[in-house]
Amino acid sequence: MSPFRFFRMLLLRWHRRLGVVLLAFIVMLVVTGIAINHSASWGLDKSFVQQTWLLNYYGISEPELRSFRHQNEWLAQSGVTLYLNENDIGSCDGPLLGAVKQADDWLVLCEARLQMFNHQGARLDDISESLGLPPAVGAIAANGNNIYLQTSTATIQFDPTLLTFTALNNPIQDVDWADQAEAPLALRELWLSAHRGNGVNWERVLLDLHSGRLFGPVGVILTDIAAILLLLLALSGVWVWVSKPGRWR
Description:
This protein has 249 residues and is of the alpha+beta class. It folds into two domains: 3-47 and 201-242, no CATH class; 65-196, Methylamine Dehydrogenase, Chain H (7 Propeller). The protein is 37% helix and 26% strand. Strand 9 and strand 10 (146-150) form a beta hairpin. The longest helix is centred in the last third of the chain and has 27 residues, at 216-242. The model has no long low-confidence stretch (mean pLDDT 85).
């Protein structure tokens, strides 16, 4: 066998093997490429990932939910966002420590911050430690017309009308401090979806998969290698076709 024929047979053998190895990569490129090309008309740029495992992979972790109940109403925190039932009403940078309702107003205690909202969720006031809130307040309670705050050393009565804080000399009996309660599943899913649902759309996932970025730096390198092998596959295919004996007779 001549060296030329031997080289051609060797190239043909490896051309076939390379085609089999790259089959999955080629299919992935074709499918993701078509999907990306039609992402706007298919709505992929406006369809957001809901799968927990994929969102976790992108570093969008599930937030801790803290919720407090008054009859059939719920005041909750998802991430840093505050919700009154289904409605986004503001935020707390620190954890939500308690929420009580007096008359038609909500009093919401976050770390180093006391906020007041009306029954529609409009914020009426926002009191931080620099504006008079006693330091290290960890609990809140409503007892009739009275609002109480608890620190590690004292019980404090709060007047929502005058916005004054008065330390009490004697401990208060029969006070139910606001305690967390588990909200209905529909509300929990709504709060979680609002926090995570607009984080990553499917167009972004397809772009990352198409480029290999979905798998980090290693994925990008492997995609580059596969692209080079795909180029070699095309060149070897052309060479095998051109060098076939009798091709140019």
